[in-house]
Amino acid sequence: AKEQGKSRYVRYVEEMDARAVEHARLGAELRQALAAGDLFLLYQPVVTLPHGEMSSLEALVRWRHPERGLVSPAEFIPVAERNGMIVEIGAWVLREACRQMVEWRSRYGDAAPSRMAVNVSARQLRDPAFVRTVADVLRETGMDPGDLLLEITETAVFDSGPALETVKAVRELGVGLALDDFGTGHSSLGLLRTCPVDVLKVDKLFVDGVTGAAEHSAIATSLAQIARALRLQAVAEGVETEAQAKRLYQLGYRLAQGFLFAPPLPAGEIERRLAERAGD
Ligand code: C2E
Ligand code: CA
Ligand code: CA
Ligand code: CA
């Protein structure tokens, strides 16, 4: 048994080594990917309930890898956070999303989405140059600060002292703030007192429960009430069924996002939908 235990340990160490090597390789490739233009953005609509009309968009990054194919952000964002590349990638995402939004505003006018949401990781919030990056991108692209919504997670704000100051400074620029994956962190409600947010994105975890028994829908119900009391917009994330959408509407949700309405879409598909809307 002792022998077996040892070999299991050795195997464990070898697996960890293999993972570390894999991460290092992915990290190095990521550096090249940004330079080579292998990153691109998809845009997932946030829609109004009950009719499912496109209200705003969330930019979601993708990596077209020459050999691996499409790599999901769930895989490479953590790698980029660890090796610091997220600062550059994040700045690129921000600039590209703003550039696209400005283009759509000028092309579609009132039919354009109301705003563009961009995800910001904890590591970016800790970067002392973050606020300046945001200000620079707004100026360079001509983006109206009110058209931009930055999505941050509660852990990102809590894991780091300076993050709250950064968040407030960004808010001063006129940019909107959303708390992403709301309810999954440790002090969601406490954060609402100190952090100047406009939007709560209620995590899919709670949305999944809305059609179930009362104890499963309790959190989504409470979060809708809290949002209303604090005059925040609540967005239900990860809506996949008509039944969920209907129930969410009954609970007071007026904004939702999920595969039921639209998956993350390429810019061209967003344009097709906007052109249709501008034409009718
Ligand atoms: P997130 O910000 O919570 O984004 C929502 C994720 O849920 C997206 O995955 C989206 O495709 C997926 N999703 C949307 N609707 C549904 C649904 O109805 N059902 C299910 N099962 N999933 C749905 P994605 O695009 O793979 O992104 C995963 C995560 O990677 C994001 O979670 C975000 O944390 C991170 N991420 C993506 N793009 C960026 C970025 O540009 N910067 C940073 N820092 N993080 C990013
Ligand atoms: Ca998000
Ligand atoms: Ca989310
Ligand atoms: Ca998430």
Automatic annotation (TrEMBL):
Species for this entry: Planomonospora alba
Name used for this protein in its record: Uncharacterized protein
Superkingdom in the source lineage: Bacteria
Upper classification of the organism: Bacteria, Bacillati, Actinomycetota, Actinomycetes, Streptosporangiales
Residues of the full protein shown: 599 to 878 of 890
All copies of domain EAL, residue ranges: 23-278
